């Protein structure tokens, strides 16, 4: 299957309804049909090539990437991509200060690691019921929000984000911390909020899977 | 071809109407829309010529023309009309419903209420991940443009087709009672909700519980108005066609009305009209018969179409007025009386037939006579003169 066929099958060309666009995305939109914007797949591939090159170079230098995607349908693909490339990820709500207050966040991540270990040792069962319950609650909460950062000691060298419209604060933190961002943007995204735009459908798991697989492949091959 | 703006307005009107429960099955929209060149104008966007000039255009594996061709192939995914039927696979299950991949931009949502015509607890009771089913697009959520689809509506389409076939063949179906009201009971037949009026029930309304299964036949099947009316009586009558007109049957009085009594004869309720009780005039029906009393009745007539059976005890009275004075005698002598009645009927019929035959032969004889008259008047005269 050619790249065009794969992208078409995944539905990467489908944008939002015309009323829901961000005019800044005009140059990445190909046409307006049936009340829906169609993204320019030619540019998608061009941008994807740029992203591939960037990620390969980063991997060669031994850099790390964080995958960010908090929408309901992006959670699965993001986690899978991170697992494939041994990277960290955030697929639940982005907690304020994750990057800008990393020194504090890091302690929470250590706590999570410790609780993970407790769970494995069976330390929980030796505790009285009430304390055990409290610790398990804490463990569950940390696992939910910081599970993807478990083991991360320093900030990543790049962030790959999808569903930009819901994570503007996360991208602001990236900018503040001087971390370059690659964004998979739909017709309602803001291209000025990320450093490298890949225009594609962010509502379809197939579309996200395709693009994230391409990037993780480069990440894995680049580091070899 | 419709002008672009009016068709857009039409579709917007469709999508802004939120239909609550029942969706009348609409014909699936199948006209593909040809792209209009004016569609392209995006405000402040570079034209295709400009885009072809970008560095890296040659490195891309396809051209804008190939992209356009591919778009025509996938044209059906841009928009789904409300009322259209789509095939989708189950992508994920939630507590509130299921997310279905119908090939649109985003996953469509099928709420748990729309999964089946019978009550469903969780979406996972009906659907599993990866299942391929047919759905009907019901509406579009105005807030986040998510398509809401219904499995119930698509199944109703198939169910109604089955029902129409069965109604044409006048098949007896089993329906499960789900509710009851003053007018009758509500049943579920082949996944579609139907109604059985109490006048068409062969058992008492009070005796029917939710969850009972009744044999039913179709009275009214109107898919457009979502109207399905069935009859229990018609189904039962067909079953209990063990008796013919003139038979004597044992029955129990099921209910007593001012105009007569309903007698339960082998599952079917027959009407024993007050005038058919006895030769004597009866002022108060309750003085003669009571609910639960066993009687022997003669079948006067039966109407299969409407599931009605007419009964009589008048004919079974050895002496007129016995039903009132000596019902026990009537009970005992019922078979005898029926036999006598049959014989009388047979004799009467035989006599009638004899009369007919005689009349027919006379007419035939006359006709013969007329023929010979027409043939040769002389011969007739000769015969007459001979006689």
TrEMBL record, chain A:
SUPFAM superfamilies: Ribosomal protein S2. The keyword Ribosomal protein applies. One of its GO terms (cellular component) is chloroplast. Keywords: Chloroplast, Plastid, Ribonucleoprotein, Ribosomal protein. It is found in: Plastid, Chloroplast. It comes from the Eukaryota. GO terms for molecular function: structural constituent of ribosome. GO terms for biological process: translation. Its main location: plastid. Belongs to the universal ribosomal protein uS2 family. PANTHER family: 30S RIBOSOMAL PROTEIN S2 PROKARYOTIC AND ORGANELLAR, SMALL RIBOSOMAL SUBUNIT PROTEIN US2M. This is Small ribosomal subunit protein uS2c. The gene is rps2.
UniProtKB/TrEMBL annotation, chain B:
Residues 83-152, 170-233, 246-314 form the S1 motif domain. The keyword Signal does not apply. It comes from the Eukaryota. Residues 331-358 form a coiled coil. GO terms for molecular function: kinase activity; mRNA binding; structural constituent of ribosome. Belongs to the bacterial ribosomal protein bS1 family. This is Ribose-phosphate pyrophosphokinase 1.
